[in-house]
Amino acid sequence: MFEVTIEESFAAGHALRNYHGRCENVHGHNYRCHVTIEGDRLDDIGLLVDFVALKKIVHAVLDRMDHQWLNDLPPFDAINPSAENMAKHIYDQVAEGFKDKPEVRVSSIRLWETDLASVTYRP
Ligand SMILES: [Zn+2]
Q: What's the rounded mean pLDDT across residues 81-108?
């Protein structure tokens, strides 16, 4: 089994609904996102996935959230923009980008809200 991981970052604002504490207030994060892809077989030049192709798919997903107010951005207008929900959303969107590549699958999304706190989603 091979795993390939990239790290990307974006900035966004949010406020957690029905959270009774400071995170209920408007604030922002410089998010860091680790995207890990896995698979058993390498292609004929020895790659699991081309970093360039992986970054292109991940950028397309994260660019939609970069410098946005998440609470107004679907699906976070309906569900809380918690790191947990964001990691699952990123997973689903990145997995959609790999739907034509059955030889690899998205293993996990690790989303860092701060240098000391992260959430990992893996199905
Ligand atoms: Zn927050």
A: 96
